[in-house]
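Researcher: Next sequence.
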Amino acid sequence: MLSKAQLQASSRFGIRRGLSLRTAPSPRNLYPRQPPAFVRAVEARAASSASRAPRSEESHNARAPRSEESHNARAPRSEESHDAVLGRGDWAERRKRLRAARVQHALQAGTLGLGFSAGGFLYGYHLGVLWELTRLKVMPPPGHSDALKLAGSSAGSLAIVTYACGLDVDVATHAMLRFADDCRKHGTLRRVSSLLRSFLHELLPEDAHKRCEGLVHVGLTRVFPVWTPETVSKWNSKDDLVECLVASCHVPVYANGDFMTSFRGRWYMDGGWTGFIPKPPGVHHTVKVCCFPFNSMIERVAHPTLEDTAPRVASILDIHISPDAAPADWDFVPSLPQFVAWAFVPAEDEILKKLISKGRRDAHAWAVSMGLVPSSVEAGKELQPVQGEAAAQRELATAASMSAASMRLQKAKERLQKAKSMR
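Model: Next structure:
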């Protein structure tokens, strides 16, 4: 135990209780502490600057014109050097020629594929692209031996399956408008999956899985054990194909209230999460189609030297067909937030038809720029109402197709009820 005098001595010299009094206090503790080194440096710099003689007004005024002259003389040289370094003058043309050479070579070699982005209710844009490229004979019709491989996630998967099954343009357009009208009337939250499943069973032919096998690659996001992109190109039946498409379009909570959905005993969600624009396997070059106006934003981010310094990044940013890749020909130019809103809540029928027409025109502009068709070939015209006998024949053909689809759906329901009763 320390005595009272020892405790007072220890507190006086800053020694904590319990330490030996034999340790002598440091001399620097007995005198006032000096300021830190950086404080002393700042004070010394301030003192030296104060001691400097102020620059005379005459010398300041004499140097001002020279500074302005040098500034004016350097300005043009700076702009020229900036353009010379970035090479923006001929970069766009060089990139266009490189794209065209790649596309033409891959098309001739039979190694060209198309990838379609996720997009919700914007999937009509993808349909317009597919129909126009087929009309221009850039793409062989589905079922042809030289048909191009297609890949898509979410809305892109619906578009390529619609195309591969050979659905009539009017039938597919009418079904899209009916689906959008139902969602506008009754909402989309937590009911899109069930509504989509019933529409697919109604519209797709019974041999849809056979027509799509090897041609269509549906992008999925596998949730467990880790988030992994997957593509499926073989199905056991039409029901298996429908469930695959529903899984590819499963936006967590929005689709049916659940975070994920089951397909073939595994858990999946929207393919756009891990493969926004998937690539078909086994192709050397993929033409990327995006239904969002991302191209202008990518053009600002991409650097002219990106092709050489980071080819993988340049490949990811390389989108060929998008709503802003070609000159705008709408009465108004929708913004990116507007496209995102239309992806989750369907727009009016007039806008949906314009999306199809916009896809047709953008695909035509791309084909011309790639040198695949002459510029004299006109783009596909907008969908206009047909009058008279032609309109009646079209309505009759649409009704016949819809009635046949309804009959197939009714037979499928009867087979399902029979199978349940036999359990």
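Model: The beta strands are 112-116, 149-153, 216-222, 228-232, 261-263, 266-269, 285-289. DSSP finds 16 helices and seven strands in the chain.
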